[in-house]
User: What shape does this take?
Amino acid sequence: MKTLKHWKLQQQLAHHVELAVDGQHTLCLYVLEENLFRVLLKRRGELALDRTWSIAPQQDVPWEGRSRDDISGFTLPPGAWSSSRRP
Assistant: This one.
């Protein structure tokens, strides 16, 4: 596994941040619940699989899976985002 070192803020919403990493990847951070976060890495800006079977709020994940971009059903509390540059 390669360490991802160089990033730049691409998009920031109340519950979601996207970082451009090493000029080709996208690192997405979601605040789904007060103590539940999603970290999603899109290699070269794309997902290897567009479905997930790992998490769904208040129910089992459907047999056919759930879209990885689907955040419905979560409370989405605002994150306390801040950015700072290291010297």
Remarks:
- The first strand starts at residue 7 and ends at 12.
- The mean pLDDT is 86.
- Residues 7-67 form one domain.
